[in-house]
Specification:
34% strand, globular, 4-stranded mixed β-sheet, single chain, 126 residues
């Protein structure tokens, strides 16, 4: 049975965007190299143009948008974190991947840039 070795967030520039607009696909990488989609509904946009984009900021923001949301009214940050990881655990369990929440939380989380994003950053001198 395959096991998860790390999470990878694939940050990709939205097609034909003149301003910074990035989608993020959160994936679990398995020990056999396969990637399993966990979340495909994350991303952000700004009013900055691509030449103003900073790769380190994109990496940091990708981790934030793929990660736990801020706590809702009356909830603590610890509760929001726990709820997020239980949600991730349920998505993975539906795909026959079972790990306790504490092990999921401990996994490495890498950000990779997709080809469009790499090209836009390179064209901007980054």
């Amino acid at each position: 049975m395959s096991t998860i070795v790390k999470f990878i967030s694939l940050a990709e520039a939205e097609p034909e965007s003149e301003e910074v607009s990035v989608s993020v696909l959160l994936q679990a990488q398995l020990d056999d190299g396969r990637l399993v989609v966990v979340l495909d509904d994350r991303g952000w946009s700004t009013n900055c143009s691509w030449p103003q984009a900073v790769p380190a900021d994109i990496r940091e923001t990708a981790l934030v948008v793929a990660g736990p949301d801020e706590p809702g009214p009356g909830a603590t940050k610890a509760q929001a974190l726990h709820d997020y990881w239980e949600y991730i655990q349920s998505i993975l369990a539906a795909q026959q991947l079972h790990l306790p929440v504490h092990e999921l939380m401990a996994l490495e989380h890498e950000v990779q840039f997709g080809p469009r994003l790499q090209n836009l950053l390179a064209a901007s001198g980054h």
